[in-house]
Amino acid sequence: MAALLQKIRDGSDAAAAEQEILRITGLLEDELNQRSAEAAAANKELENFSYSVSHDLRAPLSTIDGFSRLLEGAVAKGNTERSTHYLQRIRLGVGNINELIAALLTVSRLLRAPMTVQPVDLTAMVDASFTKLRETEPERAVQIEVQAGLAAQADPTLLQQLVDQLASNAWKFTSKKERAEIAVGSQAGPDGETVYFFKDNGAGFDMAHAEKLFGIFQRMHVTSDFPGIGAGLTTVQRIVMRHGGRVWAEAAAEQGATIYFTLPGG
After folding, report:
1. Most CB contacts within 10 A, which of 41, 124, 159, 207?
2. Which domain holds residue 57?
3. What is the CATH number of the domain that holds 45?
């Protein structure tokens, strides 16, 4: 830049100076376009996030309001049994709201948490996560294959959260399979980048609804079959995005699912 300014001042090599100005202008325009695209994507994400929050908080609030009105009537009639029942339903509603808020805070913190990217032994991290899951249900027979030598360049704390979420999902959604199978590994992408994956033969889902998969509080199965509030894959997506990577899924109903993700530098 200093050399360019000197050429402009003394009038030497005007053609070269003009070309350099055009080059720098082009770079600045590209940077501006990229930032504008990122801002537009962030605004769209915020819009979707706000809609999901307002929609999903409304349901338990309506439940609390409805049962509080019923409780009021039962108390007025001296019906202790019904009053107790309504009070329990209200408490369940409050618990649901607390769970939703806790999930929102977790996702929100992911966007602000400081990052320290460093080499991570991903194989050891995945093994440790599944060891904890086996301890919670030692009676389950699950075949788990984790590729040796998996490594990544990532923030260890955030990557641990990602691994725990994906391992937990694979464990949960294979719970109804007589012979559950889970595989974790990596493969080379079309452009040579490392693509990591968590694959299972569990409940899977219909790819027609894949666009909802990473949305906050979006669920592919009813709570009675698989408990949860639908925030796990949102967490995974935020972590991958913070690392500048991509995440996507392939699945078929009752045939399992595979979650893929990239971590630049992995």
Report:
1. 159
2. 1-112
3. 1.10.287.130
Nearest one of 220, 147, 204 to 170, comparing CA atoms: 204
Residues 66 and 161 in one domain: no
What number of other Cβ atoms are within 10 A of residue 229's Cβ? 16
Residues 107, 146 within the same domain: no
Residues 6+ apart with CB under 8 A from 85: none
> Taking Cα atoms as reference points, which of 161, 150, 154 lies closest to residue 118?
154
Residue 219 — φ and ψ, nearest 5°?
-120, 145
Task: Answer with the one of 112, 127, 148 that is the final residue of a domain.
Answer: 112
Q: pLDDT by residue (tens digit) across 153-171?
A: 999 989 999 999 999 999 9
3-state secondary structure of 199: strand
Query: Tens digits of per-residue pLDDT, 122-137?
Result: 999 999 999 999 999 9
Q: Which residues pair with 152 in a beta bridge?
A: 120
* 43: phi then psi, degrees, rounded to nearest 5: -65, -40
181 forms beta bridges with 143
Please give the model's pTM, rounded to 2 decimal places.
Answer: 0.65
